[in-house]
Amino acid sequence: MRSEQSEGGKQVLSGYALKFNKRSENLGGFVEIITPGALKNADMSDVRALIDHNPGQILGRTKAGTLKLAVDEVGLRFEVELPGTQYANDLYQNVQLRNITQCSFGFLLAPKGDSFEYDKEAGVYLRRLNNISRLTDVSVVTYPAYQDTSVDIAKRNLDQYKQEQNSAETEALLFQLDLLKLQNEGNF
């Protein structure tokens, strides 16, 4: 996942909420894999971006245009323009510091939308998600079920942040030079 600030100064996160053909952690006796066609018929018309699947910490929504989703050959990519809330700013800072780096998703399955088989090599059941009927949320999470997901500051925002940091450092140095100049001239 990436984070960035847009031209209007908005903070933006992007990444993959899910990736195809990647194994989840052990979810209590089984491991999941999402097949590439699992989202083919999924209703993604009203999906929320959340923090840790908490509906009280909404980051964006497809219906509002603040959350954009795209399915590609890797999985489900998202980009969310964060609101000006304290919890969104805290999340942005944690992503920037790499304290939080992964995502998750909430979903409903179509009838017979999954299948199970026993993986003798791993010693667990393997659940394949083949047909998700509705995607409910994409969440930036502290503890993901799928380690291969990602979240980060969107690149263009990171570049702007670096420019702002350099500008602030330059201003501080110029201020210190002005003070030294005044001291040397005896005006301070």
Key terms for this structure?
188 residues; alpha+beta; Serine Protease, Human Cytomegalovirus Protease, Chain A; 5-stranded antiparallel beta sheet; 4-stranded mixed beta sheet; 22% helix
Overview of the structural elements:
This is Peptidase U35. Residues 3-163 form the Prohead serine protease domain. Pfam families: Peptidase_S78. By secondary structure, this protein is an alpha+beta fold. It has a single domain (2-154), classed as Serine Protease, Human Cytomegalovirus Protease, Chain A. Helices cover 22% and strands 40% of the residues. The protein has helices at 86-96, 155-184, and strands at residues 2-5, 11-19, 30-34, 48-51, 54-61, 67-71, 75-81, 102-109, 114-119, 124-129, 132-141, 150-153. Strands 1, 2, 6, 7 and 12 form a 5-stranded antiparallel β-sheet that branches. Strand 9 (114-119) and strand 10 (124-129) form a beta hairpin.
